[in-house]
Predict the 3D structure of the following.
Amino acid sequence: MQKGLIHIYTGEGKGKTTASIGLAVRALGHGFKVAYASFFKKPNSYGYNEISVIRKLGATVFTFSEGMPMANPQITPEEYHASTQQGLGELQKFVAENNTQLLVLDEILIAINYGYISEGELLEFIEKKPLETELVLTGRGASEKIKNIADYVTVLAKEKHPYEKGVKARVGIEY
């Protein structure tokens, strides 16, 4: 690839992380160097097995926080902001030093929506990424400014979900 493009998976519907994992598997299948970073979910705590699968396939996986303050009251907004800033710095260095061809920032858009990091911090990160690195951003509520810099924008819309009928999240399907 000569120029890495920017993908956004956003919207209220199910499947944003699943789409990014699918792209990561495809890239790994072609021998790409892939890095996946979680900014909200706690793969080690909740058993997001798709993340362990991409790790087994060769992706480098980063988790920079034990969730967000809204989901884990033991984390303050200040602590989350600091860990996210530090994580973005680590990712910037890792991606540059390891010729990463695909980088997934899972749920980074939620961190912005809740004010835990600024849109400007993400835009600065994007500006500094290596030109050849393909970048995937996921999470609800992508702003128009972020959508405008993207090459792909996929909005997943929920029309119906079994949760509305009291069906709880199921292992292997929702997580």
Remarks:
- The chain has a mean pLDDT of 89.
- The CA atoms of residues 75 and 120 lie 23 Å apart.
- The longest strand covers residues 6-10.
